[in-house]
Design goal:
The protein contains 13 helices and 11 strands. It has helices at residues 3-6, 26-40, 46-50, 52-64, 78-87, 106-113, 132-138, 161-168, 216-221, 259-275, 277-297, 324-333, 357-369; strands at 72-74, 93-97, 118-122, 143-149, 173-177, 194-198, 210-214, 301-302, 315-318, 339-340, 345-347.
Length: 370
């Protein structure tokens, strides 16, 4: 447990569902409350003052992504960014995994419906993810982009972004859904042309928060199909004419975002930056090691990668002869919150998760033997 980081949270010790939702910190809660209270006492300065939170959040997100604010834009969620990217490709084939979370599939299904980019579905090996070899085998001259999750939501498989960039070459786009990785896994984000992330999971910023980071290649080649009134030049000039899209990542803006959620995101990102991604990742890795040992000790079958270089903060497993719902009931009885799927369970600790959670998981799995 990273104690200096954990001191900012009130999350129960047995909460192991961060891959689904990350309970926010007291800092994010205070920022949200403060912004709402300020908005309730509005005067001629209120809106402009509240809107400053967006600039703070964008600056911190940019630093953590290894870029700058010109290449960064706040978004209400990861899906919005993926649709921006998908609709920005006029034609060609986009490689995407058939096993990925639906948010990384529907944008490509919709572009195909519209006669724009067409998906070619990749099928990773069971328990694995998108590898350079899998991508190279699917490459043809008409492939214009690869869309992939930095960390697979089912197994925690960590994509090798640098190797994937090398596999597709310098001229194709690499589009990365970073929602299961950003802020908790050190990855070469600069290998990607588009990085999108929502803040409601590992960043612990709450719902309706997120951002995208775009490379120069993305700004040059992706059409700004969804640009709204806040994504154009001379945004404050209401002259009844159509303004050209902003020259930077702000062209992905559709309308003003909530300054309340921007304040929460700014607070959450500040915590990550102050405690460092490396320290957060190391603390999570320690919990994953401990939980993996417990699951194995009680006869569980681990579905996630065991190689630290290829895994992140997700431990997926099954218990032979026990349905996931039955295992979940045992875990709930010990105060443990997992993700429950029809075919498996998922444990996802954070840097604030204390070591004693392994004892609770062991007690739950031991009870199944009885």
């Amino acid at each position: 447990m990273l104690r200096s980081y954990a001191a900012h949270f009130d999350t129960p010790a047995g909460y192991l569902d961060f891959a689904r939702f990350g309970p926010p910190s007291r800092d994010a809660l205070a920022a949200t409350t403060g912004a709402m209270e300020d908005s309730a006492r509005a005067d001629h300065t209120t809106v402009d003052v509240l809107m400053r939170a967006e600039a703070v959040a964008r600056e911190t997100a940019a630093r953590l992504a290894g870029t700058d604010t010109r290449h960064t834009v706040l978004l209400p969620n990861a899906s919005t960014g993926l649709f921006h990217a998908a609709l920005g490709i006029r034609e060609g084939v986009v490689l995407a995994p058939s096993t990925d979370f639906p948010s990384n599939q529907y944008p490509w299904r919709r572009t195909a419906d519209l006669g724009r980019a067409v998906p070619r579905w990749l099928t990773p090996a069971p328990g694995g993810g998108v590898t350079p070899d899998l991508v190279r085998a699917a490459l043809t001259d008409d492939v214009v982009a690869l869309s992939v999750s930095a960390v697979d939501f089912r197994t925690g498989f960590r994509a090798d972004l640098a190797a994937l960039r090398e596999a597709i070459g310098p001229d194709r786009l690499l589009i990365v859904d970073a929602i299961q990785a950003f802020g908790v896994a050190e990855l070469p984000w600069d290998a990607a042309d588009v990085v999108v992330a929502g803040g409601q999971k590992w960043l612990r910023a709450g719902w309706a928060t997120g951002f995208a980071a775009l490379s120069d290649r993305a700004l040059e080649t992706l059409e700004p199909v969804l640009t709204g009134w806040t994504g154009v030049e001379d945004v404050g000039l209401f002259d009844g004419t159509e303004h050209p899209p902003a020259p930077d990542a702000q062209r992905w803006s559709i309308t003003n975002l909530s300054p309340v959620t921007a304040a929460a995101l700014a607070a959450a990102l500040d915590l990550v930056e102050r405690h460092t991604v490396a320290a957060i990742e190391a603390a999570i890795s320690t919990r994953i090691d401990e939980l993996t040992e417990v699951v194995g000790e009680y006869g569980g079958r681990v579905l996630s990668p065991t190689d630290p270089a290829r895994r992140a903060g997700i431990l997926s497993f099954t218990m032979p002869d026990h349905a996931p719902a039955v295992v979940a009931k045992a875990l709930h009885a010990e105060g443990v919150t997992p993700t429950v799927r029809a075919d498996s369970l998922r444990l996802s600790p954070h840097a604030s998760t204390p070591p004693e959670v392994s004892t609770s998981v062991a007690a739950a799995l031991s009870s199944l033997r009885a």
